[in-house]
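Q: Entry one of two.
A:
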Amino acid sequence: MTASKNDREFVCSKSETDVEEPSAINDFPQLTTTTERKLMAKVDLHILPFLCVLYLMAFLDRVNISNAVLFGLEEDLHITSGTKYNTALTIFFVPYIIFEIPSNILLKRLKPHVWLSFCMGMFGFVMVMQGLVQNWGGLMATRFFLGLFETGMFPGCFYLMSCWYTRGEAQKRFSFFFASTTLAGAFGGVLAYGIGKMNGIRGYKGWRWLFILEGLLTIVIAVIWFWTLPDFPETVSWMNEEERAFIKAKLEKDTGKSAHGQSITWRNALAVFKDCESAPILFWGHIYLNILQTRSLLVGWHILGLLFRLMVMPTLPTPSSEATAIVLSRRNYIPSLPGLLLLDSPN
């Protein structure tokens, strides 16, 4: 009888525990003033346009040298022979690769609106200086510092998005972000064609005006972004406490801790190279970026080698860039379908 009574007490206590577990699981912040769909649309409108414009200007300032070649840069700087032009293109990637990790560490310690807008303003200033260089040495120096200040744009934007979106939500946003680089090629050539018509104004060649005006535009946007670029869900003023708690809980459920709450150290940064799942991503990312950069930096040179008319040359990348942007925006829906995530899906 005693054993039977103890068994009944054990069964009762177990069933009570089983009843409490679901309530613990359902202890997830509920939205009462809005819906999740409306909240994420609100986040998109406050985050994506800023980051897309930021990286679009970085990419435009990086590759506009290919359009400058069409307006006489090589002849004016006396780099038509040898490998001087290719060396000027390559020197950009030396600081760009070396300082990516330190840049994200600084972005974490400072606020994104401070670090990203500072870098944006500085590479805009370097772009203006690039329009004033007189020789190959000056071009090399400006390309080096351009790479130094642009190094934080790509990883910084991705890090900031990870502070707002779960892995499943981020895929569409990453594709939309990537599309901004192709749009830079789409209207960058048309913009270069228009600016090139300023050839001779105040004694400056068209390629100089191309660097100067696009650099000044970048500086203006950087000043605006300093006051408007959002930081983290915990610090923005356009979300209430309920919405902040919901975003934070989603991120913690997805990865264990929100990205804003995680520290970035050299040990954490180097650990990615030990992760076998990261190796194929790094490999294919390397292949993709090589193709993208080669196409963007050398397209003007190759077109010039084919002796196309100057009126047509800068606008040729436009159709292919627009098509690429559309494909990038559409194809992300397939891997983001439930159960079809190519990487780890949210729990």
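Q: Entry two of two.
A:
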Amino acid sequence: MIELVGMKTSELRDFAVQSGEKNFRGTQLARWIYDKNISQIDEMTDLSLAFREKLKEQNASLSLLEEIRSLEDGEKTRKFLFKLNNKKGKEENVESVLLPYPERVTACISTQVGCAIGCRFCATGETGFVRDLSAGEIVDQVRFMNRHSDRRITNVVLMGMGEPLLNYEATLKAIDILNEEMGIGMRGITLSTCGITPKIRELAKRKLQLTLAVSLHAPSDEMRDSLVPINRKYPLAELKEAMKEYAELTGRRVTIEYVMLRDVNDTVVMARRLADYLRGLHCQINLIPCHEAANDFLPSDSETMHRFAEVLKEIGFPVTTRAERGLKIAAACGQLRRRVENA
């Protein structure tokens, strides 16, 4: 199967020529794929019938995902579970979330089937890592949700299933397509990582104006080794140096993601330790309520989260608390997939 989704305009122009067509046909393909978000070859009505038939004969695909299930809550947050169409054998599923806000529409998308990191509070890691997604499979999540949204998607967060920096090349190509081909501003794209420090440094050298979000979740190596096992390979001191390098080379502040786990990492002492660790780093802190997952962690209560945030603010850090969205529809990473596969 030829994945047309995931090719840039220049690649589609080359593909058109290789198919015996003029190169401008590739530009037309790009417009249909990334502007119109079409899913069927016959929808491309300004292509000749002969070219459309040739595309079918070549097994060219404009749809790499098939919706298995979707759930929607009262705030119009919508969670999708997709089956991947281009692999044989065992069914492979990924998740995406569509989050409409008054001022923007955000898509939360996946970069891998499963995840190798194994964060203890995350449902995705329970089944382990299966494979990387292609650039086309990453982009097609946004295209699919554009077709199911009242307004065009303006922001993308790579915070779904998988560790984006362990699928570096496909993720970066997908980001280029989202920006250059689909018109999503680079500052409207957020890449979330558990802290793959060599890839953070490599990304920094590209000087992209996207937002780098680092899933920290603990202020000490001892605690983070337990919660986020990749810390044993890339400990906090090394991670901080990589984040500082990223901020210095890009001029962008780093977002620190911190899931609040009741009686684990949410005390005033932990807040002060977090501030000590982050001192000197150009960053903002995003406190995240813990969602239900397979393990026995519980979310911190609102009073505890407020107190934690106030400690950090008094020290001088900008702090936000993520609004809870999608609790009723298993919107956190891996929850809907787990629910369906275990049914």
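A: Comment on entry two: Residues 119 and 228 are 5 Å apart (CA to CA). The two ends are 31 Å apart (CA to CA).
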